[in-house]
Specification:
Length: 260
């Protein structure tokens, strides 16, 4: 079984590169998951964009600290049944913080957790948060847990894996938008500190360069602006052994635009 996890989709450039890339590789994968918390102009998601991403061939979407940036999300949450939000988000209004997915005879529990380091939207540390999910699902038939750990600190993500590696066989970091070089199998657990982003290559992690300079260096009032132009595509491909029902390999995917 082959699983594709796509890093943080940032704005229109990110959505466009995901659309064009998936059109040529979607058939290679049995299951496609993406982090979509930046998909609507860099912060949050809307029903329209959720439906658009589903039409690209994305099966499930995880979120992060910007989950509730668009107020309309609560009005349409019931229509976005394949959207998984962080369990420990301070504004969480839904029970869609995990989803049990059956694929090719394998039962995967997909979860979304916020880190606590430098993450003001978290109302609970990630370790007790995941323990709560384990308690809630202990009677379910689950082969392993897959966690989108949305956080700033690479050390916190690795610590989470080491502590829960008997249960969480896939731990994928999101949020920092820069793909890390530590994709590896830790025993029978697939891990990477950050999957990276899908968004404008010439940017500050997806945000407009000049606008960011104005805001942070010159300290001038500015409007949050998503960068445009050719985009990078970042993801990981994970092979899952259908006999052992455990991950067998993880591979980084990083496709830069031809004109960069």
């Amino acid at each position: 079984m082959k699983l594709l996890f796509i890093g943080d989709i940032v704005g229109k450039s990110g959505r466009d590169i995901v659309s064009s890339t998936l059109s040529s590789i979607r058939e290679e994968y049995d299951l496609v998951i993406a982090n979509a918390e930046n998909s609507a102009h860099g912060k949050g998601i809307t029903l329209k964009i959720y439906q658009q991403l589903r039409s690209f061939g994305i099966d499930y979407m995880t979120m992060g600290n910007h989950t509730y940036s668009k107020q309309m999300i609560n009005e349409h949450m019931s229509e976005m049944d394949r959207l998984i939000v962080p369990y420990n988000h301070e504004k969480r209004t839904t029970d869609n913080y995990y989803k049990i997915i059956g694929c090719k005879g394998i039962s995967i529990c997909l979860c979304n957790i916020l880190g606590s380091a430098f993450m003001s939207e978290s109302n609970m540390e990630p370790y007790p948060a995941f323990e709560k999910i384990l308690e809630e699902t202990e009677k379910e038939k689950i082969d392993f847990y897959m966690v989108d750990f949305h956080g700033e600190a690479t050390s916190e993500k690795r610590l989470f894996l080491e502590y829960f590696k008997e249960k969480a066989k896939i731990v994928l970091g999101t949020h920092t938008h820069v793909q890390t070089a530590d994709a590896d199998m830790i025993g029978d657990c697939a891990f990477i500190s950050d999957v990276g982003m899908c968004g404008a290559y010439h940017s500050i992690i997806g945000r407009g360069i000049e606008e960011t300079i104005e805001a942070y260096i010159r300290k001038n009032p500015s409007t949050y602006t998503i960068a445009e132009g050719p985009a990078i595509f970042c993801a990981v491909g994970i092979e899952i052994d259908e006999m052992t029902k455990r991950p067998a390999s993880i591979e980084r995917i990083r496709i830069k635009p031809k004109e960069n």
